[in-house]
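EI: anyone free to look at a 277-residue chain?
SC: sure, send it
EI:
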Amino acid sequence: MTQIRPIRAGGTAAVWLFVGFCLFAFAFMILSSFKDSTQILNSPWSLPSTLDFANWARAWDSAGFGTAAINTVVLVVSASVVVVGISAPAAYALSRRRTRVANGLTMLFVLGLGIPLQVIVLPLYQVLAEIGLIDSLFGLFLVYVATQLPFTVFLLTGFFRSLPSELEEAAALDGLTAGGTFFRIMLPLAKGGLVTALLLTAISLWNETLLGLMFIQDTEKYTLSLALIGFIQQQQYNGADYGALFAGVSITILPMLVLYAWLGRRITEGLTEGVGK
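SC: here you go
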C-alpha cells in the first residue's frame, strides 16, 4: 500500500493537470470567438472588450455552419435512433439464445469492432457508387448505421444478459409471446442501456469526419466537421479570420459538451450496469 499511494497521487495530479488544460483550452476558445483577428494575435490572453456575436453570425451564415448544423442534427438523430432500434431486438435475441449460431453471430459483431474504418472505406465507396448514393446524405446515413451496429449490438447484449430470465418465464406463464415479452417487459427494463447506446452513438457520429470526407462533395450537404475543414481551407485564400474560426469551432463542440454535461452521469451509470452480471 505504501508503494501504491505515491503512484495514485501522481495519477490524480496528472488527471487534474489534464482537466485544467482542457478547461483552459475551452475558455480560450470561447473568449477568442468574441475577438477579431487583430486582438487574437496581439493580445491572445486578454479578455474581449465586448461580447460581440458578429463572429458567430459570420460563421453561421457566411461559412455555412448553419446549413451544416442542420445536416448534422438530422443525420445524427435519425442514424442514432435507427441504430438503437435495430440493435435492441438483435442484442436481445443473441443474449437469450445459447446456440452455436447465436454465439457465432455475437462473435461476428465483436470482430466488427476490431476492423479499422480505413480498411472498409474503399469497398463502401464502390458499393455506394454502384447504387448512386455518392454525395448523398441518405448514403452517408446508411454508412453511419452500418458502421455503428457492431458496437451497439455488443453493448446492448451485455445489458440484456444482465436481466433475470425469470421475468421471461413469468411472462410466458401469463401468456405473453416472445415479442410481447420483449416490448412490454425487457425493453423498459433495459432503458438505461438504450439511453447509453443512443448517447454514445450520437457523440460518435457528431464527431465523425472521415466518412463525410469520402462520400460528400457538395458544400450544401456538409456536416459540421466538414464545414470546419472547408472554412480552414477557405481562409488560406481569403485571409485569416480567426474570430469566425473560433466561433465555428465553438458551434461544432458546444452541443456535445452540453449533452455530455447534462447526461454524462447517465452514460457512466449505463456503461456499468451490465458489467460483470
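EI: The CA atoms of residues 235 and 241 lie 7 Å apart.
SC: 👍
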